[in-house]
Automatic annotation (TrEMBL):
<feature type="binding site">
    <location>
        <position position="322"/>
    </location>
    <ligand>
        <name>FAD</name>
    </ligand>
</feature>
<keyword id="KW-0274">FAD</keyword>
<dbReference type="InterPro" id="IPR036188">
    <property type="entry name" value="FAD/NAD-bd_sf"/>
</dbReference>
<dbReference type="InterPro" id="IPR023753">
    <property type="entry name" value="FAD/NAD-binding_dom"/>
</dbReference>
<dbReference type="InterPro" id="IPR001100">
    <property type="entry name" value="Pyr_nuc-diS_OxRdtase"/>
</dbReference>
<feature type="binding site">
    <location>
        <position position="122"/>
    </location>
    <ligand>
        <name>FAD</name>
    </ligand>
</feature>
<dbReference type="GO" id="GO:0050660">
    <property type="term" value="F:flavin adenine dinucleotide binding"/>
</dbReference>
<dbReference type="Pfam" id="PF02852">
    <property type="entry name" value="Pyr_redox_dim"/>
</dbReference>
<feature type="binding site">
    <location>
        <begin position="328"/>
        <end position="331"/>
    </location>
    <ligand>
        <name>FAD</name>
    </ligand>
</feature>
<feature type="binding site">
    <location>
        <position position="213"/>
    </location>
    <ligand>
        <name>NAD(+)</name>
    </ligand>
</feature>
<feature type="active site" description="Proton acceptor">
    <location>
        <position position="454"/>
    </location>
</feature>
<dbReference type="InterPro" id="IPR004099">
    <property type="entry name" value="Pyr_nucl-diS_OxRdtase_dimer"/>
</dbReference>
<keyword id="KW-0520">NAD</keyword>
<dbReference type="Pfam" id="PF07992">
    <property type="entry name" value="Pyr_redox_2"/>
</dbReference>
<feature type="disulfide bond" description="Redox-active">
    <location>
        <begin position="49"/>
        <end position="54"/>
    </location>
</feature>
<keyword id="KW-0547">Nucleotide-binding</keyword>
<feature type="binding site">
    <location>
        <begin position="190"/>
        <end position="197"/>
    </location>
    <ligand>
        <name>NAD(+)</name>
    </ligand>
</feature>
Length: 475
């Protein structure tokens, strides 16, 4: 007899495992299915984020940043190191260790919350009385049933036509995190988050990195001022970024990869690299889900169609995270997972898309929440803006990292904060205050009147708020 559950979650990435835990906390009998395997063939929950995305990339970014500091910045602090070398194999092994710690932590959390974990691929079999039958194809095949089903199967890297990933020379985010030696020359197609972060890792370790971007503008979704500063800084660091390119052909050979393209001027160019990272976005993952068996509707992009509350067209079936509309961000998936679990329990789960923060973990870091100046102009919103440079911040000077600024845009009449944009040290941490302020409909004056610790980077946020009314104290 198959096991029956109140809630079955397919996928144990950030959206899935969090949904499972929250549902269990609310008193439901919960199962969570995930097929990701570690090197030994055991379960590796956490999805793309933990296994080949957020977590391992941050581990490599940290290692490469230490290496760069030792080579270029320690002397400023009076620290003499002699010749500094990088053991890439050890760096990658550390990254793998960090990933495993997170995998094991998720398994522990599921067990702690009495979630039954199934290691295998989950797929729909059929609608059943009072719910759905779900097949688990793992070491052994079995069918379980759930009254409610939450699909959280994530996304896959988008490949360029004619340049399929071999994860040896043509790399997705997965292969880019497993490169065993520093390439002499690295090509990156796409100047989004993955391209910039992984490109930065290998640039710091000595690779010549060339980034090819189809869009005519750099980081078009970010604030224009932030994007302009970022392009200037990354170029100074050594990243070669070409905008407005059109890829003509990619040839993958034994000695590397050649990319034929036309530049923004329409001139034919060819780039020869040892490795090529393709980071042109991601596509919803419904491979093997068998949505046809129950009539689950997908859109033209292959994503699962949901309403504002993450309900699909089927009663009792929900979907969250990268497999549905909206930004493909781990924290967005987590919030949707919690909200769906609470909706199943009859509560009023809530996700505010207007206050989801965006972060790029380069150096300097880039983070923002809310509207950009260009969006507000396009919408005809009358606003005022204040900006404060880290160059004038005491803590940034002590850190030796004064690149960038904090910008706050607020409604010209009500002073309500409409957006906050940061490029600089620890922007990923500083943005949390902005998210909190916007959730509570704070004004720029509210942040300006709050006491911030001195010396701290967060004082730059306070000063930017003061700058909205042209009354900064330290610049």
């Amino acid at each position: 007899m198959s096991q029956a559950f109140d809630v079955v979650v397919i996928g144990a990435g950030p959206g899935g495992y969090i949904a499972a835990i929250r549902a269990a906390q609310l008193g439901f009998k919960v199962a969570c299915i995930d097929e990701w395997k570690n090197a030994a063939g055991g379960p590796a929950p956490g999805g793309t984020c933990t296994n080949v995305g957020c977590i391992p990339s941050k581990a490599l970014l940290q290692s490469s940043e230490h290496f760069e500091h030792a080579n270029h910045h320690f002397a400023d602090h009076g620290i003499s190191t002699g010749k500094v070398t990088m053991d890439v194999a050890k760096m990658v092994a550390r990254k793998d260790g960090v990933v495993k710690q997170n995998n094991d932590g998720i398994l522990y959390l599921l067990k702690k919350n009495k979630v039954t974990f199934f290691h295998g691929r989950g797929s729909f079999v059929a609608a059943a009385e009072g719910g759905y039958q779900i097949k688990v194809a793992g070491a052994a095949e079995e069918v379980i049933s759930g009254k409610q089903v939450i699909v959280a199967t994530g996304s896959n890297a988008r490949a360029l036509p004619g340049a399929e990933f071999d994860e040896v020379n043509v790399l997705s985010n997965d292969g880019a995190l497993r490169v065993g030696a520093v390439p002499k020359k690295l090509g990156v197609i796409g100047s989004g988050v993955i391209g910039l972060e992984i490109g930065s890792v290998w640039r710091r370790l000595g690779a010549e990195v060339v980034v090819l971007e189809a869009m005519p503008a750099f980081l078009p979704s970010a604030d224009e001022g932030v994007a302009k500063e970022a392009l200037k800084v990354f170029t100074k660091q050594g990243l070669k970024i070409e905008l407005g390119v059109k890829i003509s052909e990619i040839k993958n050979g034994k000695k590397g990869v050649s990319v034929a393209y036309t530049n923004a001027k329409g001139e034919a160019q060819e780039l020869a690299v040892d490795k090529l990272i393709v980071s042109i976005g991601r596509v919803a993952n419904t491979i093997g889900l068998n949505p046809e068996a129950v009539g689950l509707q997908l859109d033209e992009r292959g994503a699962i169609m949901v309403d504002a509350d993450c309900r699909t067209n089927l009663p009792g079936v929900w979907a969250v995270g990268d497999v549905v509309r909206g930004p493909m961000l781990a924290h967005k998936a987590e919030e949707e997972g919690v909200a769906v679990a609470e909706r199943i329990a009859g509560q009023h789960g809530h996700v505010n898309f207007n206050t989801i923060p965006y972060v790029i973990y380069t150096s300097p870091e880039i983070a923002w929440v809310g509207k950009t100046e260009q969006q507000l102009k396009a919408e005809g919103v009358v606003y005022k803006a204040g900006q404060f440079p880290f160059l004038a911040n005491g803590r940034a000077r002590a850190l030796g990292d004064t690149t960038g600024f904090v910008k706050i845009v607020a409604d010209a009449t009500s002073d309500e904060i409409l957006g906050v944009h940061i490029i600089g040290p620890q922007a990923s941490e500083l943005i949390a205050e902005a998210v909190m302020a916007m959730e509570f409909k704070a004004s720029a004056e509210d942040i300006a009147r709050i006491c911030h610790a001195h010396p701290s980077l967060s004082e730059s946020t306070k000063e930017a708020a003061l700058a909205v009314d042209k009354r900064t104290l330290n610049f």
